[in-house]
Every structure is written in structure tokens, then in C-alpha cells.
Amino acid sequence: MSIAAQTSADAARKIFESVYGGAPTGIWAAPGRVNVIGEHTDYNEGFVLPMGIDRYTAVAAAPRLDGVLRLISSGGSTGVVEIPLAAIEPGAQQDWTAYPAGVAWALSGAGALAPGFTGADLAYSSSVPVGSGLSSSAALECATGLALTGLAGQPISPAELARLTQLAENRYAGVPCGPLDQLSSAFAAADAVLHIDTRSFDIAIHPFALAESGLALLVMNTKVQHSHGESGYAERRATCEAAARTMEVSALRDLTSADLERAAAKLDEVSLRRVRHVVTENERVSRFVSLLQLGPLEGPRLNSAGELLTSSHTSLRDDYEVSCEELDVVVDAALRGGAHGARMTGGGFGGCAIALVSADRLDRVAETVSDALPGAELFTVAADRGAFQVY
Ligand code: GLA
User: Fold this and answer.
1) What is the pLDDT of residues 296-336, one digit of tens each?
2) Same domain, yes or no, for 137 and 23?
3) Most exposed among 251, 303, 347, 382, judged by the fewest C-beta atoms under 10 Å?
């Protein structure tokens, strides 16, 4: 088992034992994610290429009989929070507990918890950085979903887990995200990336054992999160949906580069740039996947993969306008330091960027990035498995 998952699981167990007394019935864990390429395509029913990372949220849990959820997190400043199951409704929580409460709400609404489910004690520990675009909320949701269904004795498939946790995030936490994060956390596989068609939810798994090819994936956490990110996300989404209507397709996924000339005649300048990003990004995902299908990334294939990452960033920066100064600074610095390619990952407006780096250049790249943005937190990640029961 992954050491990362085990470490979080052991920490969750310790919290459980010291807060609630006794041993948990089980411990479940779910990873954060890095999206390798395919950004802002998921709510356009397009393609994404994420991987789970070796950073986990684990939850130690045991059933209760009094209709109450009790929650505590190593990262939460609130101590134990008690939420009666009867009081679970969208809007009732405003802090991190809205995510697990939302999962309980979505699961019971779908009949995914046994009728006799009567509450739980939950203790969380996480190594996924919060609010950095690495999907700490999806990790929290997926770990919770497995734990609650596990306690209820109702097995859940990864597809249902992803669907219901996304529903919790959309309707309960009020975040209008697409399915990328929850699908990644639910389906991730060790040493692999997931090629996901977000229309059909078809998933193809491709080997991505970077270390074996002498490569590393460096995460560059800018540690900034610009406040206009939330409105910016909703606005991009609305622009895409309106453009799809104007272009008379059900989603932008149905357009290709060949349609861009026609789009130019019908759309305003900003919408056209948004559409161009989505269309070219979907095409970059399929080109990246074609490279992976030819074998491990090396030689000219590695150069091409790096170029696709960097052109994804350029498109997100110039056409989609979801990057920010700090993300541009770390991406440029990584490239100057000798990375094969680099790009922002996740929703943007702050958070993290990634760089594909030869292992023997890692120190040099990290140094260049640290000089350029001294506050950045740098670490490498490996592709790790999706949500599972640890004990
Ligand atoms: C956020 C959302 C995802 C996805 C990405 C952008 O992470 O939660 O659904 O839209 O942004 O690719």
C-alpha cells in the first residue's frame, strides 16, 4: 500500500482514538489530484487527463446510534462538530464540515445509505494542501462517501461515488465544479493517468510511471488564491454554455478546430477566445494520450509532451484568462530552469502549477522557481491509487 495513504490513515486513527476513545470500525482514504492536461474542459463535456497524487485525506470512522454525525479534523480549528442527521440541508454549514455533511445528504438522498444508518463518529487527517487546486475537497468527499457507505454496509461503485460527491459539492457546498476532481479521486490508479471522456464517463488508464523514465512531476504551489476565482469560474462556465447554444451544439466538446472560423463569424471576441481554448485543449489531450500510447516519454516524444503542457498554459493564460501573475512566474521560471513543459493545473486564479522535469534537473528547476517566487512551496508527486478502504 502507498506509504502516503498509510501515513494519513495512521494519523486519522490517532485522532479518532484520542477524541472519541476506542478503535474505529474502519479507515478510508482518497487522494488529491493533479490534472496533467485538459483544463476547463470537464464542464464542456470534453476530455481530461488527471492522476491521483500521493497526498491523501483519510477518515477513521465508527457508527453511532443517536442520529448524529460527529466530525473532527487535524486541519480544522473547530474541535469536534456535531451535526444531527435531521439538520442536514444545503446551506446549514459554512465551513469544511459542509463537504462531509453534503456527502451524507447526497448519499441518503440517493438511497445509498442503509435505511438504518444512524450516524457516525468521523476523524480526518489530510496531507492534501487545502485551497491549492489539488482537490482537497474531492479527497474529503470521496473518503467520506466510502466511509459512510462502508459503515452502512452498502458498497458503492467508483462511478456512483464520483457522481454523488460531485452532487454534494454542486448542491450542498454550492460550488459549480465539473466532474473532474471527484472522478480523479474515485478512479485514480497507481503509476497511471486517467483519460476521461466527461460526457460518457468512459475512462482509459495509461501508464505514467515517471520515475522509471527518469522524470519527475514537480508541483509548484503559489500559495495564493485570488478572490475573483469563484466568480471567474462561474463566468467562464456561463460563457461556454452560451457559446455552445450560439453554435447550436449541446456542449463545446462537439466543436473542433475546423469549426473555429464559423465560430469567429458568430461569437464576440471574448467568447471566441474561450471557445478556442476549450477546442484546442481537447485536441491537446488527445495528442498527449497518443504520445503516451507510443511508450514511455523520452526523446522527441518527451519534447512534444512538454510542448503540449506549455501550450496548454499559454492558452489558459491568454485565451481563457484564468492564470495569474504568480502562476505565470513559476511556469516561466520552471521552463527557464530546464523543465520539459509546465502549466497551471486546476481551476486557476492561484493555486498550483506543474512542471515535467528530468530527475537530474530537478534541483536546478526547483532553485530557479524558488528564486522567482520565494513563497512557493515545491514538492514532487507520484501517481497514486484512488479512494479505498485502508483498514
Ligand atoms: C476546478 C473544478 C473542476 C475543473 C477544473 C478546471 O478544479 O473543480 O471541475 O473544472 O477546475 O479544469
Assistant:
1) 999 999 999 999 999 999 999 999 999 999 999 999 999 99
2) yes
3) 303
Q: Give domain status of residue 304, yes or no.
A: yes
Query: Cα torsion for 180, 226, 364, 354, to the nearest 10°?
Result: 10
Residue 311: Cβ-neighbour burial (10 angstroms; 0-12, 13-18, 19+): middle
Q: How far is the CA of 205 from the centre of ligand 1 (A)?
A: 20
For strand 47-63 and strand 68-73, is the pairing parallel, antiparallel, or unpaired?
Answer: unpaired
Does residue 247 contact residue 212 with C-beta atoms inside 8 Å?
Answer: no
Amino acid at 56: Y
Q: What is the CATH number of the domain that holds 375?
A: 3.30.70.890
pLDDT in tens, 235-245: 999 999 999 99
Q: Among the three residues 204, 233, 261, which one is the final residue of a domain in this structure?
A: 204
pTM of the model: 0.97
One DSSP character per residue, 253-307 reads GG--GGGHHHHHHHS-HHHHHHHHHHHHHHHHHHHHHHHHHTSSS-HHHHHHHHH
- Ligand 1: atom nearest CA of 40 is 12
Q: What range does the domain containing 56 cover? A: 3-204
Q: How far is the CA of 135 from the centre of ligand 1 (A)?
A: 9
- Please check the confidence at residue 1 and state whether its pLDDT lies above 80: no
- 299 within some domain: yes
Q: Is residue 389 part of a domain?
A: no
pLDDT at residue 76 greater than cutoff 90: no
Task: Indicate if ligand 1 lies below 6 Å from the C-beta of 169.
Answer: no
Say how far apart CA 107 and CA 99 lie, in whole Å: 12
- Cα(239) to centroid(ligand 1), Å: 15
Q: Residue 323 domain-assigned?
A: yes
Q: Ligand 1 pocket check: which of 33, 42, 230 to mutate, most ligand atoms within 8 Å of Cβ?
A: 42
Please check whether residues 11 and 159 belong to one and the same domain: yes
Pocket test for ligand 1, best of 141, 181, 344 (most atoms within 8 A of CB): 181
Give yes or no: residues 291 and 232 share one domain.
yes
